[in-house]
């Protein structure tokens, strides 16, 4: 979120963050948003480890619509988005994933890359569809897997590219959505 805020403040991204929602009540993004005067809320999925229940998706869609959201940008949200939310924001939900999709979808992609002995990894920004990290790819950035890399050292370099690429792709995609 900080990279997105910085891009807005720097004039790279002509947008406003209308609302920050998290399924983790202790997530740092909530306090960061509040410190920047951005409304926040919690998505209650406490009874479900990784599932995003339909009722929670309907409530999320309602809250986003009430806040005047045009484009939903996921970051660190580890639940599959399905019909209620996809229907409310068709082709208007973006995600950032720490691999060069279609390689290494799902959780902890940087660990998957290191364990597989990959020579490169990276980051992908894509439109969310009903699959796991399967939507249309908007942009990617490559990150080499270096000799001696651990999953942590690779992920640290991937995050640098995430912070650069995501605001750029949000700006490019949002500009195509303008009437």
- By DSSP (H or I, 4+ residues per run), the number of helices equals 6
The CATH topology assignment is Rossmann fold
Any idea of the CATH class? Alpha Beta
How many domains, in number, for the residues? 1
Biggest sheet: strands, sense, closure?
4 strands, mixed
Radius of gyration, Cα only, in angstroms? 16 Å
**Total DSSP E strands:** 6
Helix/strand order, N-terminal first: HEHEHEHEHEEH
Backbone shape: globular
Describe the structure.
With 179 residues, the protein is an alpha/beta fold. The protein has one domain: Rossmann fold, CATH 3.40.50. Helix content is 39%, strand content 17%. The protein has 6 helices and 6 strands. It has helices spanning 2-9, 28-35, 54-66, 83-88, 109-116, 151-177, and strands spanning 20-22, 40-42, 72-74, 93-97, 120-127, 137-144. The strands form 2 sheets. Strands 3-4-5-6 form a 4-stranded mixed β-sheet. A two-stranded parallel sheet has the order 1-2. Strand 3, helix 4 and strand 4 (93-97) form a beta-alpha-beta unit. The protein is globular.
